[in-house]
Amino acid sequence: MTQSRFRLYDAAGVDVLIEGMARQAYGLLAGRPLTLVGVLRRGAPLAERLAQRLHALDPALDIQRTDLQVKRYSDDLRLLHPETRLDATPEQAAADFSGRVLLVVDDVLYQGHSLMRVFEYLRGRHAEAVYAAVLVDREAARWPVRAQVVGATLRIAPDDVIECSVPPFEAEWAITLCRQSGAP
Q: Whole-model pTM?
């Protein structure tokens, strides 16, 4: 089986998507304090970049950052943990987000397992509201989760894969479609 790769967004295109995400997120905040929760690995640098864009829109925004270690898939997108794993530090386990809006940031929303696990974890943390932001929404969620802030919506074949290249893990920002074709 061969794999074809198609670059959908280069670094400049991803930059435009993140700018749009910042504007969407700013509309949700209504001036309320924000905590950006990056889903490690690729959601964390994306959350940092989103924080920079939000500060550019409004330097007075109260923005805090934290990252959660969530693991379901390997980097090559093989399933590692059928029950999505979330590892929190003792400080994260004791966190109280009273009066804050939480924006959970990840690269791709596929079936929704990771976001659902994060939402379950954050449920008892007293946040004013919890939203999700993703660079790409595949609109294939199997769980009752959706992202309120979306860079791009890509409806692709079930066997195709969306790869988000995110520094420092890759050299440059990009979104690539990987399509399996041919006989094994």
A: 0.88
